[in-house]
Amino acid sequence: MHLARQIRDTLRLLFAQPDEVMLEVGSGGELIVARLRSVVALLLLLLPLINAAGGGSVRETMIGLGGAVLVNVFALVWLALARRQRRHRWLPFASSAFDVTAASAVLVVLALNHLPSGLNSMVVWCGYLLAIVLTALRGDARVTLFAGVLALVEYIVLATIAISSASSPEQLISADYGAVTLGTQGQRVVLLAITTLITVMVTFRMQRVVEMSGTDGLTGLPNRVWLLHRFPRVIDAVQRDGSSLSLALIDLDNFKRVNDEVGHRAGDRALKHVVSILREAAEPGENLVRIGGQEFVLLMRKPIGSAWERVDFLRRQLLQRPFEPERGGEPFRLSLSAGLASCPQEGTDLSRLLRRADQRLQEAKREGRNRVVARDG
Ligand SMILES: Nc1nc2c(ncn2[C@@H]2O[C@H](COP(=O)(O)OP(=O)(O)OP(=O)(O)O)[C@@H](O)[C@H]2O)c(=O)[nH]1
């Protein structure tokens, strides 16, 4: 039962979309892969020319040149897509499928010419391994799994068709490439599976580490790093659909008093208590972030008037549920002050909005705390 649950949880995590910070790192990785692919594609153009210079047939040179030009065109398309600001969720899947299928296509061409060269060529076959390993740069274990399974399926189909199409055993033996046997083909399949498994594990670990860097250890809320990566996407969405976004900078009032009176550990519990209240009251589409000690940011996809009502509601909720430091101890009535800023009216970049919200937060503090300010006084 325990093992089954562990397997289920691991699979759920594996198939979950990576968090925002990882997706951002991954789209940078997609660009690196796209650049590498373009360089390799350019080098591929040299091969048919070298073949021609070495006395190869015109037909072979033309086929090689045609293939290399096609690969270059695709490489440029992937590069243009990876350079675009907008993140396409399907891009890493499509581009890694292209890499795997390009290796298969070259093996098919080789096999059509000479069966053993298609099945025993080590250099081209390593293209599969490269395609699988490079998916780690996309930072999404689902992409790695997809590329690995695709490589396995394509290679098994290719090897099965090639071996069964040989009219005599001699056709599977070559002086340059050796003999094609079920054993060596089986070893290749196992190697592909092992490479996929190891790359999935590396990518998965990377995802967890990056996820931790975007999560606050005490409360489990997203942190400042997460906000910095997430914010440009939120702004994109707001500008695309012409909606409004309000940012609230929330600060707990006189929090030092909690630490001074009941100690730092109780202070930590008080912070968790506040976060659980804010979380319970959160509405779909809102993002609560802990950006500092007792400072939080709340992103709301609504105009500033309704955002003020939301934050004021949270303020009242907090007042109604005092923090009890220990069983029987004197409860602390905690309160919050907040400053709001609206996007796009008051800016579209995070630092500008935070500055605006902070000015209003300071005003709320000056006016006696326990209040929410949405406009300049
Ligand atoms: N226990 C605990 N305390 C924290 C944490 N982060 C920040 N603090 C405390 O929060 C307090 C913040 O104090 P101040 O910046 O003076 O502000 P304040 O007492 O909340 O007063 P105002 O903001 O002016 O209302 C300090 O005592 C910090 O030690 C934390 O993670 N745990």
UniProtKB/TrEMBL annotation:
Q: Which residues form a coiled coil?
A: none
Q: Which reactions does this protein catalyse?
A: 2 GTP = 3',3'-c-di-GMP + 2 diphosphate
Organism name: Agrilutibacter niabensis
Q: NCBIfam families from the xrefs?
A: GGDEF (TIGR00254)
Q: Where is the GGDEF domain?
A: 243-377
Which InterPro entries does the entry link to?
Answer: Diguanylate_Cyclase, GGDEF_dom, Nucleotide_cyclase, Rev_trsase/Diguanyl_cyclase
Which UniProt keywords are listed?
Answer: Membrane, Transmembrane, Transmembrane helix
Matching SUPFAM superfamilies, A to Z? Nucleotide cyclase (SSF55073)
**What PROSITE patterns does the entry give?**
GGDEF
Repeat among the record's keywords?
A: no
The protein here is known as diguanylate cyclase
Pfam families with a match to the protein in the record:
GGDEF (PF00990)
Transmembrane domains' residue ranges: 32-50, 62-81, 93-112, 118-137, 144-166, 186-204
Q: What is its EC number?
A: 2.7.7.65
